[in-house]
Amino acid sequence: MRSTVMYFLLKFLFFIIIIIIIIIIIIIIIIIIIIIIIIITITIIIIIIIIIIIIIIIIIIIIIIIIVIVIIIIIIIIIIIIIIIIIIIIIIIIIIIIIIIIIIINIIINIIIIITTTTTIIIVIIVVVTIFILIIFLILLLLLITTTPLYYYYYYYYYYYYYYMFYYYYYYYYYYYYYYYYYYYYYYYYYYYYYYFYYYYYYYYYYYYYYFYYYYYYYYYYYYYYYYYYYYYYYYYFFYYYYYYYYFYNYHNYYYYYYYYYDDDYCYYYYYYYYYYYYYYYYYYYDYYNTTSTTTTTTTTTTTTTTTTTTTTTTTTTTTTTTTTSTTTTTTTSTITTTTTTTTTSSSIELLLYVLRQLLSFVLQRIKNVHTCLFKL
């Protein structure tokens, strides 16, 4: 009696643990999907930020070009104004020279007229010399005032303009070189990061692809649905285990009644033997499950054996779909994958209902057997 209760509790605990494991697997799959969605949104945000930065840089460059053009236009206008001023000054100097020449000619004529008078010769000479000296002095002073500072000012301004333009061009070239170097460095860094990320992703994908191709040939064209098919695979073996367990239970029910008719003392011994035999069968089934996980051919054989049962018709359909996919193109594979997902969902619900129904019948039968055994004892 004690072994029977312990067996029943162990079976119930085993079933609860299986359900908890299934729930944990589903939660892990949901978390992985959420993480993938978060990564995709982050990459989209980064791309948008990079595009905005590039647009801002282009706008700044356009503004700088406009400023440079405006400065060049202003400088050209200033140079034109300076040239006009110089031309006006030259015209004024020419007019002054002409006036001076006219004055000199007039003075010479007056000297010729007045030269007859001897009394005024000395006075005229003195006046003419002084006037001539004053005129020369005024001309020199005018030239000194007008030409020299203007020439130096023009030369200084011209030199300053070229120096400023050279400095500005050098600064612009340095800025352009620095910007180009920064852009090149940024592009190299982005390319290196992208290459590293792609290499890491490719290596990770190749490793898992090779791993599933080597161990599970059945999942070769369904690597995107690996977790889902693994879940389905687990349920398939869960059903397979309960199917044989139900067969084994009915088989021992028959022997239980057979022993029961012969001897009443066999009841307790039978439960102990039954528990031990079940444990041995579970150990054998575990070894068998390990061999089917490591050998591709054995996995295919197990699927074919399950075809003999009427409940696993959906599993047989999935196996046929896998065989068809191995001979078709990649586009056909995507369509078949969608169909298989729908079929597997319905078969999983039916399988869960079947397992619950078998568990309920098992519990009721065990209660009936325990009650009968206790009554006889």
UniProtKB/TrEMBL annotation:
InterPro entries: Erythrocyte_Invasion_ImmMod. It comes from the Eukaryota. The chain crosses the membrane at residues 12-40, 46-79, 86-115, 121-145, 157-176, 196-216, 228-248, 268-286. The keyword RNA-binding does not apply. Keywords: Membrane, Transmembrane, Transmembrane helix. This is Uncharacterized protein. It comes from Dreissena polymorpha (Zebra mussel).
